[in-house]
Amino acid sequence: MVIICLLGTDTYSPIVRNRDSNEIVASILQSVNNAGKDDGMRRTRIMYNSFLSYSMVTHYLKLLTGNGSLEYDEPNKAYKITEAGLRVLELHNKIIGMLNV
Length: 101
Known about the structure:
Layout: H1 21-35, H2 43-50, H3 54-66, E1 70-73, E2 78-81, H4 83-99
Antiparallel strand pairs: 1-2
Helix pairs in contact: 1-2, 1-4, 2-3
């Protein structure tokens, strides 16, 4: 039996890559923003929508609540995006738009 692994070849190189922290932050902010400003989103849903492990989502949620981009709604156990988070997301999208010209 011969098993061929194509992950290291040029066929998959442009497709498979690691995201940087800016892309992960934008993904989390976009997920929470899509949930609605009043509803918020729970940690597990953020984890699934952003394709992150539990430890990674915990790390980034602490970072984003610490810098004021997200706030944690204790009674609902949900994260909500703040005005600062909306601004970060807006700037990220502008930068990506300019780089993809």
